Amino acid sequence: MVFRSFLLVLLAVCTCTVLAASDAAASKLPKSVTLSYELIGSPSVKPLVTVFYDPKTSKHALSSWTPPSLDSLKSTNPESTSSKLLRILLPNGSSTVTTLDTFGDDVHQKIDLWISPDDGSVFSASVSGLSPPPLSAEEERYRKKVARAKAKGRPIPPPPPVPNTKKAREEAAKAAALHEPIKVNLITSGPGPSPDLATRKPPQVDTEGREIPQEEQQEKSFFQKYWWVFLIATMLMMTGGGGAEK
């Protein structure tokens, strides 16, 4: 669809645009948390991102996104095929582990923040990678045009115009959300399931404190339960039969 063509331009500067818009919204949010990272085996700790949020409404905004530089942290060992490990740190000292591949150019990032229900603070956080949604054929053609213009030093061609209708704007907003390079999930922890305790009478024990096994009572038969009905019926039959004689 035509309205999705402009998304490729947003992808080139999407992170900067998100942060610029988030700075304005951050002042209205009551809480914030700053995540840092360190390469495992290195004592250097660097800031990663600051997230402003409201634990009641789950609204959030990003600020100062500074991901690790892949070129500076990649292994110089030619025999190494695994990605380096990074530790994501919270101010309270808790941490989670991710890989350097999480911050690749062709990968989107997802930030999960676990919120305490008591004071709204973040007690755990993690960063993981997400595969971006595939581009449509029209978007792919436009990206090639942009790449050719950049390679030749020419101005970037403008995307096709978006129809100025409410439906087109709503669909464009949904598509832009799919292409959002950094997603934040606020997870509020709730009370766990309460155990369903079975109740029974206190067991009988002997003088040594051992439980005395109880004999299982067999279920009564139908006649044992309702013998009195048969007795009344028999008496009525006998009384009625005797009254008929003269």
From TrEMBL:
Sorted UniProt keywords: Signal
Query: Where would one find the signal peptide in this protein?
Result: 1-20
- Report if keyword Nucleus is assigned: no
- A Pfam family assignment: ECM10
Q: What residue spans carry the Basic and acidic residues bias annotation?
A: 207-218
Q: Which PANTHER family match?
A: ER MEMBRANE PROTEIN COMPLEX SUBUNIT 10 (PTHR39219:SF1)
- Annotated region Disordered: the residues are 185-218
This protein is called what? Answer: ER membrane protein complex subunit 10
